[in-house]
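#structure-requests
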Amino acid sequence: MGEKRAQRLRVTLSRFKGEPSCGGSPLQELLSVASVRGGKFFLILSFFFLISCAAYPRYTTHPVSQPSSISESKIDKLKMTRIMESYLGEPHSNYDCSALVRQVYLRYSGINLPPDTKKLFLLVKKVEKEELSFGDLVFFTEDGLSPFHVGIYTGNNQFVHSSSSQGVTISSLDEKYYARRFLGGRRVIP
């Protein structure tokens, strides 16, 4: 048993000194390095942990494509309006509210927002209702605490959203249903 361990250690050291090893695949050599320390399980577990972390998307509130002056300037209303208009009439089954917001911002500026209303609510900067401007996100609640619906503010107390009954549509913050459930505004692009 001691001889096998010594052989593995020599193989490991030979790799670091630039000498040829005993052969075998890179994975076998890596496992032999780990087994010298008795850590095969730890190595494999670490490998899968790193892979699983890499699988999740990284959400950003800045353009992931080419850098531009979007962050420093106001939103191009015409461009964003055209993008939102292309979704009007789409059924809710194609885009729920957060997926619609995500798609509009992804097409508009390459911003990768989470397709989850609660995560979205926590990610972006808070804006008072009186300070809402074109492109801000508006959130609604049923319990008074956590968001369950989101839309994109278009001015004049109106917003584009995906309604479960009407699909992608334009509604007013003044409508009784939305006025009672308004939770707050959030700004993605300053």
